């Protein structure tokens, strides 16, 4: 039986970043474990942006700017991306990478904690697409904050919802701190399913992605 990790690696082998710098960023992230979105998941997110014609994007968790750059390339002319990061070293490196791609007019980095009220984020609302890729223990809180700045037909994407497959066997995670974190991710997935105003689909691409869309269908007797 082929393992999921091997299948993921097979699928990822067919994805290619647009520039040499992006490929260098992927290698650096892998070498020193910088948390960027896995290339196969990123490729799907780019397709989602193209399918929906998304232009206004909010990203929670900039890291070195990898995802925001690739989203900007997929969204094309007229895109506006706000990305939130609190680590100053990450902000400095992301700024260099964004400028190297000449996307400084498209991507704006907000220095701050995504769990807090940030005026710069609110000022650009509403967003067509919001990507949650920050502190996993705060996902539920971040989702709730995102709802208030999401467009009526908007989409919220949550990355890493499978957490290296550990959500499928939580009891096997013996390290206490890691066990708590995995339980938080699992609880978040159940939280998404229980949201009355959203439909969520879970995908096994990358490290797992949840795609949550606002419900807009009106049935007899009211909305559901």
Automatic annotation (TrEMBL):
The keyword Nucleotide-binding does not apply. Keywords: Magnesium, Metal-binding, Methyltransferase, S-adenosyl-L-methionine, Transferase, tRNA processing. Its EC number is 2.1.1.-. The keyword Hydrolase does not apply. Mg(2+) binds at residues 133, 159-160. InterPro entries: Cation-dep_OMT, SAM-dependent_MTases_sf, SAM_O-MeTrfase, TrmR_methyltr. This is tRNA 5-hydroxyuridine methyltransferase. The gene is trmR.
């Amino acid at each position: 039986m082929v393992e999921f990790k091997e299948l993921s690696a097979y699928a990822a082998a067919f994805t290619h970043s647009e520039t040499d710098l992006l490929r260098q960023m992927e290698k650096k992230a892998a070498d020193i474990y910088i948390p960027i979105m896995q290339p196969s998941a990123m490729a799907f997110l780019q397709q989602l942006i193209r399918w929906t014609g998304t232009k206004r994007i909010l990203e929670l968790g900039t890291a070195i700017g990898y995802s925001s750059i690739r989203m900007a390339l997929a969204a094309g002319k007229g895109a506006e991306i706000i990305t939130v990061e609190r680590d100053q070293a990450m902000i400095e490196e992301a700024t260099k990478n964004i400028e190297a791609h000449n996307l400084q007019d498209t991507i704006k980095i907000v220095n701050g904690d995504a769990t807090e009220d940030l005026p710069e984020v609110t000022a650009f609302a509403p967003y067509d697409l919001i990507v949650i890729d920050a502190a996993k223990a705060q996902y539920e809180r971040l989702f709730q904050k995102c709802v208030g700045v999401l467009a009526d037909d908007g989409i919220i994407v949550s990355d890493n919802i499978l957490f290296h497959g550990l959500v499928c066997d939580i009891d096997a995670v013996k390290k206490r701190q890691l066990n708590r974190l995995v339980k938080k991710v699992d609880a978040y997935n159940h939280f998404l399913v229980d949201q009355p105003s959203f439909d969520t689909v879970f995908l096994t691409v990358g490290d797992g992605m949840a795609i949550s869309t606002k419900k807009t269908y009106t049935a007899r007797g009211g909305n559901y």
